């Protein structure tokens, strides 16, 4: 009964991880489109897309951390697993125990990243003063969109002034979310085992190069 409840909770966690993966794919498609526009405008009209470098840097962080949980879910996180693959084939019980131990270590490391980045996210978000009156600048007018745009202008920004600027907090939120959700998935792997563990085998055993 308890295992059934845990697996039901895991299924919801997995659904959110898949949705985040799709969101990361959409960001990637938008990035590809922007880069194509930059190439076309640069070569045909001698008018490069302003801020494409900043967009690439900003988007890559979103893509990596939005897709991280689903990478963990499917067992495709990059790691050296030759020894682990041998242990799974030769001594399955020891291999399973070692896998759960490594997943527990990974869970701890993901939690440490969340612990380190969370204060940076809250500081960047609070710099916008979305919900609190700012100490300096224009006071809230009561109009949602006008106050929202004014608050965005107060945010801690990344980018080049006069070319492209974007608030830091969405990227830091993506880092917190991606690592937190990856930690949760690693935790479920420790409890229930790695359903995708059979994929972690050596290249020699699969015929891959």
Automatic annotation (TrEMBL):
<keyword id="KW-0812">Transmembrane</keyword>
<keyword id="KW-0997">Cell inner membrane</keyword>
<feature type="transmembrane region" description="Helical">
    <location>
        <begin position="12"/>
        <end position="35"/>
    </location>
</feature>
<keyword id="KW-0813">Transport</keyword>
<feature type="transmembrane region" description="Helical">
    <location>
        <begin position="97"/>
        <end position="118"/>
    </location>
</feature>
<comment type="similarity">
    <text>Belongs to the TRAP transporter small permease family.</text>
</comment>
<comment type="function">
    <text>Part of the tripartite ATP-independent periplasmic (TRAP) transport system.</text>
</comment>
<dbReference type="GO" id="GO:0022857">
    <property type="term" value="F:transmembrane transporter activity"/>
</dbReference>
<keyword id="KW-1133">Transmembrane helix</keyword>
<feature type="transmembrane region" description="Helical">
    <location>
        <begin position="171"/>
        <end position="192"/>
    </location>
</feature>
<keyword id="KW-1003">Cell membrane</keyword>
<comment type="subunit">
    <text>The complex comprises the extracytoplasmic solute receptor protein and the two transmembrane proteins.</text>
</comment>
<dbReference type="Pfam" id="PF04290">
    <property type="entry name" value="DctQ"/>
</dbReference>
<dbReference type="InterPro" id="IPR055348">
    <property type="entry name" value="DctQ"/>
</dbReference>
<feature type="transmembrane region" description="Helical">
    <location>
        <begin position="47"/>
        <end position="66"/>
    </location>
</feature>
<dbReference type="GO" id="GO:0005886">
    <property type="term" value="C:plasma membrane"/>
</dbReference>
<feature type="domain" description="Tripartite ATP-independent periplasmic transporters DctQ component">
    <location>
        <begin position="31"/>
        <end position="186"/>
    </location>
</feature>
<protein>
    <recommendedName>
        <fullName>TRAP transporter small permease protein</fullName>
    </recommendedName>
</protein>
<keyword id="KW-0472">Membrane</keyword>
């Amino acid at each position: 009964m308890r295992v059934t409840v845990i697996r039901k909770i895991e299924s919801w966690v997995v659904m959110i991880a898949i949705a985040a993966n799709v969101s990361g794919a959409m960001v990637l498609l938008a990035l590809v489109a922007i880069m194509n526009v930059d190439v076309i405008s640069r070569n045909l009209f001698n008018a490069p897309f302003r801020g494409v470098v900043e967009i690439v840097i900003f988007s890559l962080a979103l893509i990596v951390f939005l897709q991280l949980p689903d990478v963990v879910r499917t067992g495709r996180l990059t790691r050296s697993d030759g020894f682990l693959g041998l242990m799974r084939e030769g001594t399955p019980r020891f291999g399973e125990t070692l896998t759960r131990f490594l997943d527990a270590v990974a869970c701890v490391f993901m939690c440490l990243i969340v612990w380190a980045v969370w204060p940076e996210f809250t500081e960047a978000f609070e710099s916008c003063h979305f919900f609190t009156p700012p100490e300096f600048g224009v006071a809230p007018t009561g109009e949602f969109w006008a106050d929202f745009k004014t608050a965005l202008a107060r945010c801690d920004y990344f980018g080049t002034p006069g070319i492209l600027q974007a608030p830091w907090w969405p990227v830091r939120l993506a880092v917190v979310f991606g690592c937190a959700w990856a930690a949760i998935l690693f935790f479920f792997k420790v409890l229930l085992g790695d359903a995708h563990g059979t994929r972690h085998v050596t290249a020699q055993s699969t015929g891959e190069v």
